[in-house]
Write a structure and sequence with these properties.
The complex is a heterodimer. Chain A is mainly α. Chain A has ten helices and no strands. Chain A has one domain (about 10-250). Chain A has helices at about 1-5, 20-25, 30-50, 60-80, 90-105, 115-140, 155-170, 170-200, 205-210, 210-250. Helix content of chain B is about 90%, strand content about 0%. The chains are: A mainly alpha, B mainly alpha. Chains A and B meet through α3, α4, α5 and α6 of A and α1 of B.
């Protein structure tokens, strides 16, 4: 028991388990999915209950819902242009789902579903499939001209084309690893310093005084993590917008 | 690292649930939640546009009224000026006419007076001549010279014609 208490288990928080007893276990419903469900409900609640009054001058909840809407709308308009309007529900869902996942994960005992590479990769792959389908359906075979920019010297083709293809294919990888790595690093740090607080706090009379230091670090880290949680959701959304721009306009 | 433990069967089921939950969330937001936000925002934008239009119309109407007022003020001023100058011309004409009338009357009076004066002088001259004739006759009688009366009168007339002209 004493030995276990001293080891820092920073990764245990990412362990998958099932919820809702035997029913959940039989359908493989993990705590990750539970938090997805919670954040989905919160998003819907924000957008539906917040807008319920339909006030001309919005209240607090309504202006939150409206500014979330306006934020993504402006982003799409600035990055993709007016053709980007039809992707609005998708980008909005993506942004809110990642943002709420990141933010919910900061609560104690909560599970951060964006800290799993498989989850972020599936999201990134969805974006990748979307942009590829959009590009091919809009431009047909001209889409493949994307890999060789017009006006480039033809003898550079053997270099440019592989580079462009690799950079195109690496989009979902960079997109998913960025989000996953940021969330994991933040949560591991929080967990490590929180373990320090407990360990140092147990060191007799002087312990609680020393334990203040990692506690202070954790307070600062939480502030940073809130920033990172927003920033990573923003980066994911804006990169999706940029890729959509490429898909719609081909450069 | 539990995230890389792809042998865990929960990893796959988690992803399937992810797709289900994300899909439902996308559907709910797309068909139900987001159009409501859009309608509220459109409504507000329409309201703001309408209000701005109304304000612009009111401003235009005010400016038109102002221009009308300015025009009517200018017209009234011009009319007043015209009336003043017409009255002035009329008054000048009237005064000129009056002055001419007065002048005519005065010159007529002057002429009449002059005629009267001339008549009086002629009369006086005639009387004087008579008196001179009588005086000359009387003096001649005193001197005992008998002269016909006609000669005396003719002489007096001659003398008067020489001196009095």
């Amino acid at each position: 028991m004493a030995e276990e208490g001293k080891a820092i288990d920073a990764l245990g928080q990412f362990e998958l388990g099932t919820v809702f007893g035997p029913v959940g276990a039989s359908v493989g419903f993990t705590q990750s999915n539970l938090y997805m469900l919670i954040s989905g409900c919160l998003i819907v609640a924000l957008m539906v209950l917040g807008m319920r009054q339909r006030a001309m001058v919005p209240g607090r909840m309504q202006s939150l819902a409206e500014s979330a809407y306006g934020f993504i709308d402006d982003m799409l308009l600035a990055q993709v242009g007016s053709e980007g309007r039809r992707f609005f529900p998708f980008v909005f869902t993506l942004f809110m789902f990642i943002l709420f996942g990141n933010m919910l994960g900061l609560f104690p005992y909560a599970f951060t579903y964006t800290s799993h590479i498989s989850m972020t990769f599936v999201m990134a792959l969805t974006v990748f499939v979307l942009i590829t389908v959009v590009a091919i359906s809009l431009h047909g075979t001209k889409f493949f001209g994307y890999f060789f920019p017009e006006g480039a010297p033809i003898w550079l083709a053997p270099i440019i084309i592989p580079v462009e293809i690799v950079s195109y294919l690496s989009r979902p990888i960079s997109l998913s690893i960025r989000l996953f790595a940021n969330m994991v690093a933040g949560h591991v740090m929080l967990k490590v310093f929180a373990s320090f607080v407990v360990m140092l706090g147990a060191l007799g009379t002087i312990g609680p005084f020393i334990a203040i230091m990692p506690l202070a670090i954790n307070v600062a880290l939480i502030g940073f993590e809130v920033l990172v949680a927003f920033l990573q959701a923003y980066v994911f959304a804006i990169l999706t917008c940029i890729y959509l721009h490429d898909a719609v306009h081909l450069h | 690292m539990p995230q890389l433990d792809f042998a865990n069967p929960l990893m796959m089921s988690k992803l399937i649930w992810l797709l289900i939950i994300f899909g439902i969330l996308y559907y709910v937001l797309k068909t139900y939640a987001l159009p409501r936000v859009a309608s509220v925002l459109d409504e507000r934008a329409a309201r703001i546009t309408a209000d701005l239009d109304a304000a612009r119309d009111a401003q235009a109407a005010g400016e038109a009224t102002m221009a009308e007022l300015r025009a009517s003020t200018a017209a009234a001023r011009a009319e007043a000026h015209a009336a003043i100058s017409a009255a002035m011309v009329e008054a000048q004409a009237a005064s000129a006419r009056q002055a001419a009338e007065i002048n005519a009357r005065l010159s007529a009076q002057v002429a009449e007076a002059e005629a009267r004066v001339r008549a009086a002088r002629d009369q006086a001259m005639g009387a004087l001549r008579e008196v001179a004739g009588e005086t000359a006759q009387a003096m001649l009688t005193r001197l005992s010279i008998v002269v016909p009366a006609n000669d005396v009168t003719a002489a007096v007339d001659r003398a008067a014609g020489q001196g009095a002209v």
